[in-house]
Amino acid sequence: MDKKSLSVTAFALFSLFFGAGNLILPPLLGFNAGNLWWLVALGFCLSGVLIPVLGILAHAKLQGTMFDFAKKVSPIFSTIYCFVVYAIAIALPSPRTASVTHEMAIQPNWDSSYLLTSFIYFALVFVFVINRSKVLDILGKILTPAILLILLMIIATAIFTLDFNFSPSQMTNPFSAGILEGYQTFDAIGAVVVGAVIIISINLKEKNASFEDKRKLIVKAGLWAGLGLLLVYGGLILTGALFADTFDAEITRTELLRGISTQTLGSTANLFLSILVSLACFTTAVGIVTGTADFVRGQYSDSNLAYKITALLGCSLGVLMGQFNVGYIIAVALPALMFIYPITIVLILLNVSPDKWTSPKVFRWVVVATILFSVPDFLGSIGLAESLDWFFKWIPLNQHQLGWVLPSLVTFFVSNLLLKQDLKRAS
């Protein structure tokens, strides 16, 4: 694979990851973290960069579809998991991109409704999705460089013109707050969804490439995309921290980003911000709808009709959900994320681990443990945890809404130890 293929694939991966949540979440994190911005950045980048990159590395290893991520648990579980993830993806993060575009790019400049914006927005998404073979080139050659250029202008202006005087942090647990806010980027889910889009796109463009060549291309592109996300997230969190004394403490995510843009880019802020938001959100919506349509097509013997119908339904759902404001969509997404995100993280980690440690039995036991210990976080997100607090409080890290972490880790090691002992007895 040549350098051109690598750069196009890396830019495409970055643009598919970098959408609405990635743009509006980091600045407010830094704004609230103050002098502890670096700690919240570590947590955010753990769930928003490291895990997604590992997801792409797992795709490089499997070179299949999202179904392959969970098939070791069981084919039935994998099918259910895929449908749930794709349903969440087209129902929440995809419409959120239209809502963010409206609030930051359209509403400040024109008096129009959420419905009109989401209708035009997803009509364009549908056009891109139908032109499936051109997705990689369009994202990698045109849209992503423009996104990065505008972002770097905002971040660089803030870093080189402001004094590094930080306010005291408003957070009690900045590291875990960063991890949980990283859930809202949907990047771990994005890794298993858009990673499959990249695999199919590469197969369409590089039909004669070997498995190993494609693996190397995907790994290198994933690492470069991850580095880009790391720099951008860190820069946006630092920028938010630098402006902690400039804006009202109750400022919203979208208002803060708009205010930072105005402070850094002056009279041209609205134009630049409109372009940035539109591009960043649009590329993610294209990736989500394309990935969902690819999956459904695979379930129906590579039917192009199934692909087009799914793309149309995904865009129609985007129009319906895109009518709600950003805050509402983020609030609605939280319960789903608190349940599906731990499962997705565990599947990514298991798939990227050596095969000798990840037999089907290990997959099953670890995933079951993750599901069971994700229940308290899910109940907490819908306001039902207090009545069962006497039962859940003994779970380590439960107070940080990460109660699934240690049980899953212990199950991984114990299951491998037990299986190893069984093999010794059998021999």
TrEMBL record:
Transmembrane segments: 36-60, 72-92, 112-130, 142-162, 182-202, 223-244, 271-293, 305-322, 328-350, 362-382, 402-419
Cellular compartments annotated: Cell membrane
Pfam family, one: Branch_AA_trans
Biological-process GO terms, alphabetical: isoleucine transport; L-leucine transport
Domain of life (superkingdom): Bacteria
Mode of membrane association: Multi-pass membrane protein
Principal place of residence: membrane
InterPro entries to which the protein is assigned, alphabetical: Brnchd-chn_aa_trnsp_Livcs
Keywords, alphabetical: Amino-acid transport, Cell membrane, Membrane, Transmembrane, Transmembrane helix, Transport
Molecular function in Gene Ontology: L-isoleucine transmembrane transporter activity; L-leucine transmembrane transporter activity; L-valine transmembrane transporter activity
Family: Belongs to the branched chain amino acid transporter family.
Name the UniProt record assigns to this protein: Branched-chain amino acid:cation transporter, LIVCS family
Gene source species: Flagellimonas zhangzhouensis
